Amino acid sequence: MKTYSLDEVTDKFVGKKGTANRDSFENELKMDLIGQTIKQIRKERNLTQEQLGELVGVKKAQISKIENSLTDARFDTIIKVFKALNAKINFNVELLNQKVAIR
């Protein structure tokens, strides 16, 4: 029985890195992970979606959409959510094979 790596399976069924389908897939996956992380931290902080929304200045429905990856939330809203959750935020940006850390 032959085994395949995750990259091999993703290349075959989603598309090679750099293709539009692969980029879309990876962006959706990242947004899903962000939403799950927000939900997990919110629950650890014993906050309801409504309470978090009040801290951020958005409605409960917006928090629900972010947690369930049902919206392309604005970047500044995501930052506000993490700040309201008292979470440290780090981003890594890769430009032309150079890695830049933003802290």
Short description:
With 103 residues, the protein is mainly alpha-helical.
Which descriptors apply to this entry?
103 residues; mainly alpha; 2 strands; 57% helix
Q: Report strand %.
A: 5-15%
**CATH topology description:** 434 Repressor (Amino-terminal Domain)
CATH superfamily: lambda repressor-like DNA-binding domains
Domains counted in the coordinates: how many? 1
What is the N-to-C order of secondary-structure elements (H for helix, E for strand)? HHHHHEE
Number of helices: 5
Overall average residue pLDDT: 89
How much helix, percentage-wise, in residues? Answer: 55-70%
> Structural class of the secondary structure composition?
mainly alpha
Report the major sheet.
Answer: 2 strands, antiparallel
Strand order of the largest sheet: 1-2
CATH class: Mainly Alpha
Total number of beta strands: 2
General form = globular
Distance separating the two termini: 45 Å
C-alpha Rg (nearest Å): 17 Å
Low-confidence stretches: none
* CATH architectural name: Orthogonal Bundle
